[in-house]
Write a structure and sequence with these properties.
The complex is a heterodimer of chains A (120) and B (382). Chain A is mainly beta and 120 residues long. Chain A contains 1 helix and 9 strands, in the order βββββββββα. Classes of the chains: A mainly beta (120), B alpha/beta (382). Chains A and B meet through loops of A and helix 6 and helix 7 of B. Chain A: This is Bifunctional 3-phenylpropionate/cinnamic acid dioxygenase ferredoxin subunit.
Chain lengths: 120, 382
């Protein structure tokens, strides 16, 4: 599924755009000018990676400092242990689109429960 | 590797990452493989996280280490660089990483009284969790981060909670007076009593605690007491070893100690901080996670590497549903301003400055702006 995110002009280098879908996905525009999309929620706890610290092609979770690779989704070290999903980014006519992965997401316990509707 | 918690594990990882493929022995005084401590006062205590969630090693991780667990180091022999263990064994090494952490301070005279807890280890947390499940009146001695988090968790579990803090303002050390007052106001917001500026004289009770006795003569009834009055570095075992001790292991800016071939990391290590121009013992998770990289580089190439400037210390806390984040050093700041949000809303981004230069930042439910400031601090103070 291809989802329009935002105009490329609205996403300068070093910035991130969070797509408010369920679960949310974030598009990162790195300082080197590359575009990556990954699941926005840290696999450890409910934190938004869009708020994280991007360096090279890694984003550090804003809370507990696990880093996720923007290209592969892999995590460098706990507390997070599972990778995030990566999604394909397509730029067409100045618009950024995200082609969503069909793999199951690795959501933290609390968010997974929320999605399943068992948490008020 | 003497110490098998986050700092020891991170050092073991750094060793392998930096190409060391020799024998690696990890000595830990607890029986557990490395586990994550921050959740012990929060999610684990609340019951929303189990023991399996605390494991710090990845499922497929193999560091090729020999684990000597339940083994306490009692001495270090500098001549043959050997670590002596409590059971009489001795481990000789070419390089030693000291990562023995810190131990919770206790209240003199509270030994053997049921219902009195500290919170530092998994075993501490198990026993406190079991006791909190019974409900009742909890008195937390110490309004620091561990105390505040326990109070917050116990409040959510439905206990009647009182926090006693000897200083006029809790958290004034790490956060300064102004922000310490704002953050500790979270207790009153939720109906948790906060008694400040009063010391604890002792505990009353025969076999089980029944009250906390205050210096001003008041007595606070208690079914459970948690003593959260800080931690002391576990370095007694190094006394007389030649490793210089001063508020923990005295270290250079790269983790080196006064003995060649010995570095120290984590809560027990008092690193020189080039930013502050002084030694600072940082008891934060992120320090235990990040600094071993530098210390291992030092250990593997003694004297051949230039110490880099570490990132400003960073820690977080979760209290009453508010995400608290802090980076930098509040001590030495001459001003603190709220740049975003409002103190009354418990939604704040505050910046600490010295002579106009930012030296620290505090966020309450402001992760995005906080990250921005944390990056800014790393740039301006490096």
């Amino acid at each position: 599924m291809m989802i329009p995110a935002c105009p490329l002009a609205d996403l300068p280098r070093g910035e991130a755009f969070r797509l408010e879908i369920d679960p949310p996905v974030t598009v990162f525009h790195t300082e080197d000018g590359e575009l990556f999309a990954i699941d926005d929620t840290c696999t450890h706890q409910d934190a938004s990676l869009a708020d994280g610290w991007v360096e090279d092609c890694w984003v550090e979770c804003p809370l507990h400092a696990s880093k996720f690779n923007l290209k592969t989704g892999e995590v460098d070290a706990p507390p997070a242990k599972l990778p995030v999903r990566t999604h394909e980014v397509v730029v067409d006519n100045g618009m950024v689109y995200v082609k969503l992965s069909t793999v199951a997401p690795n959501l933290p316990h609390c968010v997974a429960r929320k999605l399943a509707g068992t948490l008020a | 590797m003497v110490g098998a918690s986050l700092a020891g594990l991170s050092a073991a990882r750094s060793l392998r990452k930096q190409g060391y493929d020799g024998r690696l022995v990890v000595i830990g005084d607890e029986l557990h493989r490395p586990y994550d401590r921050p959740p012990l006062s929060k999610e684990f205590l609340a019951g929303t996280m189990g023991e399996a969630d605390l494991v710090l090693e990845m499922d497929d991780e193999d560091l090729g280490a020999e684990w000597l667990l339940g083994a306490r180091a009692t001495g270090l022999d500098r001549t043959d660089r050997a670590v002596r263990l409590a059971d009489g064994r001795e481990v000789r090494a070419d390089g030693i990483v000291v990562a023995t952490g810190a131990a919770a301070r206790t209240l003199p005279g509270s030994e053997g009284l049921a219902g009195v807890h500290v919170l530092r280890t998994l075993d501490d947390a198990r026993s406190l969790r079991e006791e909190l499940a019974g409900g009742g009146r909890l008195v937390v001695i110490g309004g620091g981060f561990v105390g505040a988090e326990v109070a917050s968790t116990a409040y959510a579990l439905g206990l009647d909670v009182t926090v006693v803090e000897v200083a006029p303002t809790p958290l004034a050390g790490p956060l300064g007076e102004t922000m310490g007052a704002i953050v500790s106001a979270l207790h009153a917001d939720h109906g948790v009593r906060l008694l400040c500026g009063v010391g604890v004289k002792g505990l009353s009770g025969e076999r089980r605690v029944d009250a906390v006795l205050l210096e001003d003569g008041r007595s606070v009834p208690a079914d459970i007491v948690v003593v959260g009055v800080g931690a002391r570095p576990c370095v007694e075992w190094l006394e007389g070893s030649g490793v210089e001790l001063d508020n923990g292991v005295k270290c250079g800016a790269d983790g080196r100690t006064s003995l060649a071939g010995v570095v120290a990391v984590g809560d027990c290590a008092n690193w020189y901080d080039p930013r502050a121009g002084a030694h600072r013992r940082v008891e934060h998770w992120t320090g235990a996670r990040e600094r071993p990289d530098a210390a291992i580089a030092t250990l593997l190439a003694w004297g051949a590497t230039e110490p880099g400037v570490p990132r400003p210390p960073y820690f977080w806390s979760d209290q009453y549903g508010v995400k608290i984040q802090f980076a930098g050093h509040a001590a030495g700041a001459d001003s603190v301003t709220i740049e975003e949000g409002a103190a009354d809303d418990r939604n704040v981004l505050a910046v600490y400055r010295r002579a106009g230069e930012p030296v620290a930042a505090l966020g309450m439910n402001q992760p995005r702006l906080f990250t921005r400031w944390r990056k800014q601090l790393a740039r301006t103070t490096s």
